[in-house]
Write a structure and sequence with these properties.
globular; 25% strand; nucleotide-binding; eight-stranded mixed sheet; RNA helicase activity; 41 strands; alpha/beta; ATP-dependent RNA helicase SUPV3L1, mitochondrial
Length: 1058
């Protein structure tokens, strides 16, 4: 293979020859384009050795390089994200130090007993490959060649291979039993079985057995499943007779199959199912699926890993028979065979002073020659025997290389070596010792910079997350009854659960939002049931003396898993798969110590919750509900804001769209309420009350998807301004994507609520092109929930830190997740926000528990003022200086005045978040955050100021435009850092722009000017609006000054009182 070296054509040809190429078997593997590649076949644990030949193409020409290396790489590539590959194996051998090539050269290489944990695979959405990668490092462009290998995973016969017996039935119509001889088959096996017809009262026309392959990629909510029917076996053609039995015999050897692959490096799985299909004369289909495990049989002469290690857990997941547990959802990794991601191991720095051994070694022997030391150390590095022994001690090629670089630097740069190391080095230089004598000192140094090498098994045990149900012994000690209330939005499912909660002697409500917890808190106390409120930032006790009530309404993260209750309600259970917060629903569902657990949510979660409770030995009772009021999708889009009607809610997924649309609505002489996520809860409730009030002239609502939960709104028609929303993927990255069916149903369901004045709901789009897309989204079924989130606890991280005391918290979390083992029913939630805060305060001296608590604080990391305040909180805390009310007032520049423009409003929202952060921390560190009551008072005043700003939001937009310099986009300046949302589209159906009377130079990029350019305003109307606003501004100026003076007087009174 030829490569371009530099800019002047081919320089060098790289070739790789394996030592056993003549005798080694080859295997075939389909590529992603359907072709078949043939490469040499390797098995797990086999060594890979050979030669790298470098042929210089132009004789006499020098090829300068910065080093030559060969890597053995195991890599997973997701086809939908080819820019991001995942390496699970990377072994490196340095073939040559920096220098130059003038003639052809050959280099030997050997990777000894390489662990190849997975089988080579090419599927629909993913490829797992192994290859040798030779790199000639150059200044401008490296010369690289990749040499593909194929790996097969082998196993022996399983010790236990139970038969499968299942029944298919339709009451009084059909009863069939089918039996397969076993549940695990090798790739050349024969599936043998029988079908018994016990009752046949429907006319079956056709029956077949299918072998289905399911390829699942991704984790959490972003999981994608590709289904492929590999084989079909026609069982019968015609009507069966009662009492008849039909044999099944399906030969697997003729099909292109791979072994079952489960949770491969947390990226993908490949599973196989037997699907029995019956078709009646009316072409109705009945089917029953059963998972089977396929494995690759090893030849007797090859030493192989047994089936138990390869395909199953080291200990049984449940003490159930095969008949009791027909489907295996996940596979446990064997912790002793799993390789850690060594790229996360950060080497520690070694102190140069050695205490009392100063110059003793030099006095006993002689000073060391640095040049001789360098030659000796490089010779030690190239010793294959040393690399092999080090690998047995946990030093893979990457760590061995890093440890050697650190050891070499230590030996060559330190002023005085320890006496024993100095003497050994001197003996080797003088010929009195062997180069291998250096190994103990090298390993001693390696374990100093990589302390995790001595405690890897302990770390694996700590990060074992495979049986989270066992984390909650109080819940396991009682027999709980689980009742699933399933239904769409506005079906009354939560209402029925709350009625049982109110009737109980004691209960806890767990909701996803503070607003929902506050609603249940008020509803309970109004109904005469004393109830406390517990959120991250607030504790409200109805008892005057602070005694806890028997009922509590809380946000789900704050629920207690040790307090016994009669009834617990878990709302919005479908969020158990949320990439960031799913762990809280998992904890509540597995850990709440209540006699009855009432779960409310989408029907898509029924099967998963049932299976999850199966692992705890608890049954699930399902109660289904239908929507109480009709919801219809309109056949026409709104197209223009001129077509708005009372009770309309325009849903946007960008705050800038809200600003733009609310301004356009005001231009048309209409009032609108505004609700978006970063508004304080009080402001949201105020805007909702304004919109719901039949006496208020405000009849239009402009909102984000924040209305999807927690607010009771009297909406007649939901109008989607856009169907594209920014989402956070499993990597923590922001990306734009079409809303999911679940999201669309949640938002659309807010129209025509049962308790509102509108008894029918409608949904449509603003733009004509979006309407067919919305109909298609709403027609799809919601993806079934198949996975639940987990999160490392403070206790687990503390145990990690005990073994790795010098590692940063961010690095501890990375290593924990890398080593963590989860059942196939779970995933580890995204921890990027946690790591972001951990890195931010790493330089501040805090004990581990306090640092962990700070890093779990719910803050908006895209708000610079919030992040700066968080840093100041941590710094003040580390000095052991209480964060007093006066200190907070200085930090936020209290008292604050009503906002004059959008920028001021955004800053006030950030200040509200900072006060929320103070209150959140005050319940974790009461002594250090002592003035929570005073801070809550000014937060309520700030809420009033923000409410005033939101009520006058269109005036703020105008003020922003007026104050902006020419040529700037005033609204875009208000955006928070991060990927920009999709820009708002022009409202269709508006008149064309009229440019008469407006000079080009006067048209800056302000909102008003852009509306003129887009034809939404005429220049005459714009000038008229400016005049009217000037009069209104003079009128309101006196009111603003009066409010500011009032707030100042209140503040002075508080300080005097203190």
């Amino acid at each position: 293979m030829s490569f371009l070296g530099g800019l002047f054509g081919p320089v060098c040809e790289i070739d790789v020859l394996l030592n056993d190429a003549e005798t080694r078997k080859t295997a075939e593997l389909k590529t992603e384009d359907g072709k078949v590649d043939k490469n040499y076949l390797f098995y797990d644990g086999e060594s890979v050795s050979g030669k790298v030949n470098l042929n210089v193409r132009q004789t006499g020409k020098r090829l300068e390089h910065q080093g030559i290396r060969i890597e053995f790489v195991g890599q997973i590539e997701l086809f939908n994200d080819k820019s991001n590959t995942h390496e699970f194996v990377n072994l490196v051998k340095e073939l040559a130090l920096p220098g130059e090539l003038t003639q052809n050269r050959s280099y030997d290489f050997e990777f000894i007993q390489v662990e190849k944990p997975y089988e080579s695979y090419v599927g629909t959405n993913v490829r797992l490959r192994y290859f040798l990668k030779v790199t000639v490092v150059r200044r401008l462009s490296d010369l690289v060649k990749e040499y593909d290998l194929i790996v097969h995973q082998l196993a022996t016969y399983p010790d236990v291979n139970n038969s499968i017996k299942m029944e298919v039935g339709i009451e009084d119509c059909l009863h069939i039993e089918f039996e397969y001889n076993k549940s695990k088959y090798h790739l050349k096996d024969v599936i043998v079985g029988k079908i018994y017809f016990l009752l046949v009262r429907i006319k079956i026309q056709h029956m077949e057995l299918q072998l289905i392959k399911k390829e699942m990629t991704g984790i959490g909510p972003s999981t994608t499943t590709e289904t492929d029917t590999v084989a079909k076996y026609e069982i019968m053609d015609g009507a069966p007779v009662k009492g008849e039995s039909i044999p099944i015999r399906l030969f697997l050897a003729g099909y292109d199959l791979t072994a079952t692959m489960r949770d491969v490096n947390k990226k993908f799985s490949v599973r196989y199912f037997l699907n029995l299909v019956l078709v009646d004369e009316e072409d109705r289909r009945y089917f029953k699926q059963q998972e089977v495990v396929l494995w690759r049989k090893a030849p007797e002469k090859i030493k192989k890993r047994n089936f138990h290690q390869r395909y199953e857990s080291p200990e049984p997941r449940l003490t159930l028979t095969a008949e009791q547990q027909p489907e295996i959802r996940g596979v446990y990794s064997n912790s002793s065979s799993r390789s850690p991601d060594t790229s996360l191991f950060v080497p520690l720095s070694i102190k140069s002073d050695v205490g009392g051994d100063w110059a003793v070694g030099a006095e006993l022997t002689q000073p060391l020659d640095k040049s001789e030391l360098l030659k000796m150390l490089n010779k030690f590095y190239k010793r294959k025997e040393m690399q092999k022994i080090a690998a047995d001690q946990g030093l893979d090629a990457r760590l061995f290389h890093q440890a050697f670089i650190s050891f070499r630097k230590y030996v060559l740069e330190i002023s005085t070596l320890s006496a024993d190391l100095h003497i050994i080095l001197n003996d080797i230089c003088c010929g009195a010792g062997h180069i291998d004598d250096l190994y103990p000192y090298f390993m001693r140094h390696a374990k100093q910079i990589f302390p995790m090498l001595d405690c890897m098994e302990d770390l694996r045990k700590i990060s074992d997350l495979r049986v989270p149900a066992n984390w909650y012994p109080d819940a396991r000690a009682i027999q709980r009854k689980v009742i699933f209330h399933a239904g769409p939005t506005n079906s009354g499912k939560t209402h029925h659960a709350i009625q049982r909660y109110l009737a109980a002697k004691s209960g806890v409500y767990c909701g996803p939002l503070k607003l929902l917890a506050h609603e249940i808190f008020e509803k309970s106390n109004t109904a005469g049931v004393p109830c406390d409120l517990v959120t991250g930032e607030e504790r409200t006790f109805v008892d005057a003396e602070g005694r806890q009530a028997e009922h509590v309404a809380c946000t789900i993260e704050m629920c207690s898993v040790t307090t016994p209750y009669e009834v617990a309600v878990i709302d919005e259970i479908q969020m158990i798969r949320d990439i960031s917060r799913g762990w809280a629903w998992t904890r509540a569902l597995l850990g709440l110590c209540a006699e009855e657990i009432h779960v409310c949510g989408e029907p898509a979660a029924i099967n998963f919750v049932t299976e999850l409770m199966y692992t705890t030995g608890e049954e699930v009772e399902v109660r289904n509900y239908k929507r109480l009021t009709p919801l219809s999708i309109l056949d026409r889009a709104v197209e223009s804001l001129d077509n708005l009607r009372p009770g309309d809610c325009i849903v946007c997924f960008s705050k800038n769209d809200i600003y733009s649309i609310s301004r356009q609505i005001e231009i048309r002489g209409l009032e609108c309420a505004v609700i978006y996520g970063s508004l304080p809860p009080g402001t949201k409730l105020s805007q909702a009350k304004k919109f719901n009030d039949p006496e208020d002239p405000c009849k239009i609502l402009v909102a984000t998807d924040a209305i999807g939960m927690g607010l009771n709104l009297s909406i007649k028609r939901i109008i989607f301004n856009s169907l594209v929303k920014p989402n956070i993927n499993e990597k923590g990255e922001k990306e734009m994507d079409t809303i999911s069916t679940s999201q669309a149903l949640q938002i659309a369901g807010r129209a025509g609520r049962f308790s509102s004045i509108f008894k029918e709901g409608e949904v449509t789009t603003m733009h004509r092109d979006d309407l067919p897309i919305l109909k298609e989204i709403l027609s799809r079924s919601v993806h079934a929930i198949e996975i639940a989130g987990l999160h490392p606890t403070a206790e687990q991280i503390e145990m990690f830190a005990y073994h790795l005391p010098d590692a940063t918290l961010s690095n501890l979390i990375d290593i924990f997740v890398s080593l963590s083992q989860v059942d196939g029913m779970y995933f580890v939630c995204n921890i990027d926000d946690f790591k972001f805060l951990a890195d931010m305060i790493q330089h501040i001296p805090l004990n581990l528990r306090s640092r962990y608590v700070f890093c779990t604080a719910p803050i908006n990391k895209k708000q610079p003022f919030v992040c700066t305040s968080f840093l100041k909180f941590a710094r003040q805390f580390s000095r052991d200086e209480p964060l007093t009310f006066d200190w907070v007032c200085r930090l936020v520049s209290w008292p604050l005045v009503p906002p004059k423009n959008i920028k001021d409003l955004v800053h006030l929202e950030a200040v509200h978040d900072v006060l929320d952060l103070y209150l959140w921390l005050s319940y974790r560190f009461m002594d250090m955050f002592p003035d929570a009551n005073h801070v809550r008072e000014i937060q309520q005043e700030l809420d009033s100021i923000i409410q005033l700003g939101v009520r006058n939001i269109t005036r703020l937009i105008r003020a922003t435009e007026t104050s902006a310099p020419p040529g700037t986009d005033t609204l875009s300046n208000q955006r928070r850092p991060g990927p920009s949302p999709v820009s708002p589209r022009r409202v269709r159906g508006a008149p064309k722009a009229q440019h008469s009377g407006v000079e080009a130079g006067q048209l800056d990029q302000s909102l008003g000017s852009r509306l003129v350019q887009e034809g939404l305003l005429t220049p005459h109307l714009l000038r008229q609006l400016q005049k009217e606003w000037s009069k209104e501004h003079r009128r309101e100026e006196g009111g603003v000054k009066l409010l500011a003076a009032t707030l100042n007087n209140k503040m002075k009174g508080k300080k005097r009182q203190k």
